Each structure stands twice: as C-alpha cells, then as structure tokens.
Amino acid sequence: MNDAPRTYDVVVIGSGPVGMNVADRTRAAGLSTAIVERELVGGECSYWACTPSKALLRPVLARADARRLPGLSDAVAGPLDAPLVLARRDEATSHWKDDGEVAWLDSVNVDVVRGHGRLDGPRTVTVATPDGGSVTLTARLAVAVCTGTTAALPDLPGLADVRPWTSREATSAKEVPGRLVVVGGGVVAVEMATAWQGLGAQVTVLVRGSGLLTTMEPFAGELVADGLREAGADVRFGVSVVSAIREDGQVRVGLDDGGELTADEILFATGRRPHTDDLGLETVGLTPGDWITVDDTLRAPGVADGWLYAVGDVNHRVLLTHQGKYQARIAGSVIGARATGESLDDDPWGAHAATADTVAVPQVVFTDPEVASVGLTAAAAQREGRRTKVVDYEIGSVAGAYLYGEGYRGKARMVVDLDRGHLVGVTFVGPGVSELLHSATIAVTAEVPLERLWHAVPAFPTISEVWLRLLETYRG
C-alpha cells in the first residue's frame, strides 16, 4: 500500500450502492474521486441484505404462488431443495467476493482505498489500511459519508455469548436451523421469518407490540401475519424477550409473560443504528454514534463551509437502498454543480433536492402476501391535517386475480387529498402486487389529477385493473 498522502476533489466513505452512486456521479461531473471501504466493495445490500434476502425469498414465494394453482399445486407439494436455494443465494452474492464491484469502479476511474476511514478534521480522511499502515486523503471539495447502518441489539445480559443472528447472519447462514426465534415485527423480521419457514425451519415470531409492519396500513400487517401462520409459523404479539442463554448448542429464550422457548438460533430484528461510532465525527463538531442531519441537498448544515455530505441510511431520512441511491444521484449532481459554480435547483422537485424522501417513498415487503406502498398512510395523512378520502378495494374481486390461483386474498387502498384532487398514498397487499407499485409511485410523485388518472386504462385481465375499481369506488 502506498502510504503517501493523496488529494482528490471528492472522498467517499463507504462503498455500498449509495457510495458507489455518489462516486459515479461525481466522476461523471469530471471530479477526481476516491472511495474508502473497510469490508466488501458493494456494501451491506449486496452481501447481507437486499440481494441475499431476495435470493432466499424468491423460491419460497414462487412455490406459494404455484400452490394456489390447480394443475400445478400437486407438482410443488414437497419441500424446497434448501441446499440448492442456499447455493443460488451464494451465487447472487458472488460468494462474498467483490471483484466485480471493484472492476466496475475501476471502469469509471474511481480509486478504491481499502481500510477503515475516519474523518480527521475538515476535508480530511485518515484510512487505517489492512497492512497496518495509514494513508491520509484530502478532499478539495467534498467528503460524502455513506456508511449506512448496523443492527441495533437489545441490552440483554450475556447476549454476546448467545451469538444471536442479526440480518447479516440471517441472510448468510449456511444451513437451515431446525427452530428459529425471530424477535421483531418490521420488514427484516417478516421477510426472514417467511424465508426460513419456507426453507424448513420452525419459526416463532415474537412481537412486543400488537401488530406487524406498524408504519404501514394496518391491514398489511394483518394479512402478512395470516400468511405466516398459514405457512406454519407461530406469531405472538404483546410479548418481549427478557433473557437468552445458549447451552449445548441451543438457545433458551425467556419471555416477560413467564414463558420459555428453546431454539437453535435467535434473530433480533429490532431496528438499526447509524454506522458512525468510529467515524471521527467529533473532529468536525458532530457527535459520534449519531445520525448525521442533512438538508434536502444532502449536505450537513452542522459542519462549517459546507463540505460534508451524508447520503443514504446514515442520515436517517429513509432507510431503503433505492431511496439512498436516489439521494446519491442528487448529492453527486449537487457536488458537481457547486464545483462549477452552477446555481442549484433545490426547490421542491428540483434537480438538486431530495424531495421524494418526504413525499413519495416506495417500498416492497417480499412476504406472502407481498406488500407494496408509496406515500402516506391514511393515518399519516390525517396527522398532517389533510382532508382526505380513503378508498379500499379487495384485489381478489378483480378479474385478473383469477390468474394467480384459488382464493386470492389482497387489498388495495388509495388515499386522496380532496383539496388538491390527487393521490397522496397507495398501498397494495397480495400476490404479485410489487409490479403495481411503480404506477402508484408515478401517480403520487407527479400529483396526477384523478380526472386524468381515469383515462389511464389498465389492461385486461391483469390485477392492475384494481386501479379502475378504486377510481370507480371513489366516484361512487
């Protein structure tokens, strides 16, 4: 490793999809860029989150869909071939090797610096390299922190000795556990419960609150809970874990109601915290371990001279990969514009403002049934003081639902802002609904008037006809 100090226009800390997109956009703007990575280039999403989790889930969901189709259901009655599913997951993650990602960065002329990067005062990043040395990187224009988040574990005595699963272990496990306890009711919890139950584990889901997916419409969590139970999982609400001990390879789990469970593994999917503990934030006037607050141009206003950007999960605006990549595209263009003295278009929906973070965030939960949502829930719209009309429709009543097999269960909801005459939120739950989401995202983002949306004709027979039924129901 060359330990000589180096100077770039932009230094990016963290090479997940967010950091890679920032680097790509700044290089496209003609700025010299280096990216610092202490683990695998490609980041959490590529190796321990989005990619491996969906590789595990796809066979489970495809089988669930097939089992609803007469003529096909008997052919898929047996168990999944778990070793083959895990092998395909390993291929999806490139066997946890990052050669391809490094080659791509090389192709766009971004320098990769391996090691743990820390801020060391204004525009300076010191990298502790794997060989025990260090190198100092100086940024002429900007440093972008794209370090994401890590799992937040509860404060239970002796938990480290239990060796609990977090999302990393849940997506990279080499074999199917016989019994798995999942603690939590959010997206990671329900997706991993779906995956491992489908692969042959006996899953118990423990939820402290009264429902799943509580930031979404209530019917979403209710239908997902029904789906998990029908798949064989034990879903319990209003219960908390008070102790966990690993003995003889098994985990004994104590509950606050006095009950006890025994499992082979326990997964805590109880939230995320920012990956900023050892980032040198104190050297630039920020608090280590905190989220980094940013404005709509992704710049940290708490740092003098405006050279620090925080992009993706680390700024706590939206903890979703695709939304982080959206922020990265904006941050890269902002840094490029400021470098050339170009005036910023940072008004809402301008080229240099991450407006969608607060208005039109799309999300898919890959469970059986799927959940797809964008914008505000009915409750969130009410909290904002909007005058709304909520329209629901059973997707199973749409002709195209027949193509998905017997007993299609699903629900659609649109939330209409009556004063402005457009949608502010849409939620779909049911098999295949993820492919409906982008149309909803466009409708919410573009504030398409309902009078115009009436002329967007859905093809027959598809479940997208639910759009027509929602609009008919709205008209009355």
TrEMBL record:
- Tell me the domain of life: Bacteria
What are the UniProt keywords, alphabetically?
A: FAD, Flavoprotein, NAD, Oxidoreductase
Name the cofactor(s) required for activity, per the record.
FAD
Please state the Enzyme Commission number of this protein: 1.-.-.-
Q: Which residues form the Pyridine nucleotide-disulphide oxidoreductase dimerisation domain?
A: 361-467
GO molecular function list: oxidoreductase activity
- Pfam families associated with the record: Pyr_redox_2 (PF07992), Pyr_redox_dim (PF02852)
Q: Which InterPro entries match?
A: Class-I_Pyr_Nuc-Dis_Oxidored, FAD/NAD-bd_sf, FAD/NAD-binding_dom, FAD/NAD-linked_Rdtase_dimer_sf, Pyr_nuc-diS_OxRdtase, Pyr_nucl-diS_OxRdtase_dimer
Domain FAD/NAD(P)-binding spans what residues? 8-324
Q: Which family does it belong to?
A: Belongs to the class-I pyridine nucleotide-disulfide oxidoreductase family.
Record protein name field: Dihydrolipoyl dehydrogenase family protein
Q: Which organism is it from?
A: Streptomyces polygonati
Its taxonomic placement starts with:
Bacteria, Bacillati, Actinomycetota, Actinomycetes, Kitasatosporales
